[in-house]
Structures are given as structure tokens and as C-alpha cells.
Amino acid sequence: MQKILRVYSGLRVKVIENGASVFVPFSTLHNNKEEMIFSSEEIALYIKGEKAYQIGQAVKVKLKEVRVETRSVVGDVLI
Q1: Fewest Cβ atoms nearer than 10 Å: which of 7, 34, 47, 55?
Q2: CA within 13 Å, CB half, 4
Q3: Cβ-contact 12, 3 below 8 angstroms
Q4: What are the tens digits of pLDDT across the range 59-78?
Q5: Dist CA 36 CA 1 (whole Å)
Q6: Which segments constitute the S1 motif domain (predicted)?
């Protein structure tokens, strides 16, 4: 289980079990960027007018890629 920490060009989630940080790009969440709106007041991401993700929300993430040169981990949200 992971928790959403930040929202910029994607979701930054923290793995609860070990504290690792995983980046989930917006492009993997929805195929139409114009239908995605970020609310800075709620710190939430809306897709097609419905709240999809919010800071602190628990989500399941699948590991997609580990970039050793940048020390980053990329994943996909499992629905």
C-alpha cells in the first residue's frame, strides 16, 4: 500500500512498508490531459470532473521502471 504525497507532473507516492518513493506520471493515469484538473485548494486531481486522487489517499502501485542513473522509481496505479 502506498500514500500519495505530492501532485505535479504526476503523483509522488510513498510505499508504506519501506518508505520508498515512486513516481506515477499523469500520462499513465488518463489519456486526455485536457480532462485532468488539479485543485490546489483540495490538493486533489480531478479526471472528467470527478475527484480521482487526493493527497494522503492510499493507492496500489505496480513497479514499472527503476532508473539507476537518476535513482528514481516509476510505477503505475492499479485500479
Answers
A1: 34
A2: 20
A3: no
A4: 999 999 999 998 999 999 99
A5: 24
A6: 9-74
Distance CA 57, CA 39 (A): 15
Return d(Cα 2, Cα 21) in angstroms, integer: 9
Q: If DSSP codes are grouped into helix, strand and coil, which group holds residue 26?
A: helix
- Its pTM stands at 0.80
List of the chain residues with pLDDT < 50: none
Cβ 39 vs Cβ 54: under 8 Å: no
Beta strands in the chain (DSSP E): 2-7, 10-15, 21-25, 36-39, 44-47, 50-54, 58-67, 72-78
CA geometry: angle 6, 68, 5, nearest 5 deg = 10
